[in-house]
Amino acid sequence: MKIIMLGAPGAGKGTQAQKIAAKYDIPHISTGDIFRANIKNNTELGKKAKEYMDQGLLVPDELTCDLVTDRIQQDDCKNGFILDGFPRTIPQAEALTNALNKLGTAMDYAIDVDVPDENIVNRMSGRRACLKCGATYHIVTIPPKKEGICDKCGAELVQREDDAPETVQKRLTVYHEQTQPLIDYYKKAGILKTVDGTKDLEDVFKSITDILGA
Ligand code: ADP
Ligand code: AMP
User: Fold this and answer.
1) Which atom of ligand 2 is least distant from the CA of 86?
2) I need a surface site. Which of 5, 40, 68, 186 has the fewest CB within 10 A?
3) Please, which pLDDT band fits residue 201 given cuts at 50, 70 and 90?
C-alpha cells in the first residue's frame, strides 16, 4: 500500500502517519523528519535545509525530490510506504509520479487531512516533538504521560523553532500557494480521499482505516 498524507502544516499528518505505518507495517517517510535529523547531525543538506525551514519556506525541489525517490526504492519499501510532507509542490508530485512510473507502479491513496487555518495555530503552539523517534504530542490534546518526555523512546521533547506563530502564518501561506494545488492533482489522478482532521485523533484514524481497509 502506497499512501500520501496531504494537509496543512499541523493538520495531523505525522500523527496519523505513525499510526498507519504501525498498523500496516510499512515505513513512515517524513521529509520534515529527514531534514531535522540532518540539521541535528550538522550535515551539508541540514545546513541548506535549515535556511529555508527557519523562515517557514519550502526547501527547494532539487534538494528534496531525489532524496525521496531514492528512499522509496529501498528494500523496506517493497510492500509499500507512507509519505508524510512530500510531495509539497506540483513539480515534486510529478517527480514522484515519473519515478514510480519507471518502476511500473503508482501511488494508491492520497489522504487529505482537512483542518481549517483557524485550528492550526493552536495545534502548532502546543506541539511538542521528539527529534529522536519522530513522535509528536500536544500539551493539551495529546499530552505525553510524563511532561516533556517521549512515551515511545524516553527522549526529551522539544518545541520546534518553526512552530513560532509568525513562522506558522508564513507556512500556512506557503501551503495555500504551493501545496494545496496537489489536492486537485490527486483528485484528477483518481486517488484523493478526504478526512475531517478536526475530530479526535482516534476518530480521524478510524476514518482513514475505513478508507484503507483491514
Ligand atoms: P503535521 O504532521 O500535519 O504537521 P502533527 O501530526 O505534527 O501535524 O500534528 C500537529 C499538532 O496537532 C501536534 O501537536 C499533534 O499532537 C496535534 N494533533 C494531531 N492530531 C490531532 C487531533 N486529531 N486532535 C487534536 N490535536 C491533534
Ligand atoms: P514538516 O515536518 O512536514 O512540517 O516540515 C517542516 C519543514 O521542512 C517545512 O516547513 C519545509 O521547510 C521543510 N520540508 C519538509 N518537507 C518538504 C518538502 N517536501 N518540500 C520542501 N520543503 C519541505
Assistant:
1) 19
2) 40
3) very high
pLDDT band at 7 (very low <50, low <70, confident <90, very high): very high
Q: Cell 475505513 belongs to which residue?
A: 210
Complete edge-to-edge strand list for the sheet that includes strand 2-6:
28-30, 81-84, 2-6, 109-114, 192-196
Mean pLDDT of 122-141: 93
Is the pLDDT reported for residue 40 higher than 80?
yes
**Cα-to-centroid distance, 2 and ligand 1 (Å):** 22
Domain ranges for the chain, please list them. Answer: 2-116+173-212
Q: Distance between CA 124 and CA 51 in Å, rounded?
A: 20
Say which DSSP state 131 is in. Answer: T
In eight-state DSSP terms, residue 178 is I
- Residues with a known catalytic role: 13, 88, 127, 160, 171
Q: What is the pTM of this model?
A: 0.96
Is the pLDDT reported for residue 214 higher than 90? no
What number does the ligand 1 atom closest to the CA of 8 have? 3
CB-ligand 2 contact for 9 (6 Å cutoff): yes
The CATH number assigned to the domain with range 2-116+173-212 reads 3.40.50.300
Tell me the CA–centroid distance for residue 123 and ligand 2, in Å: 17
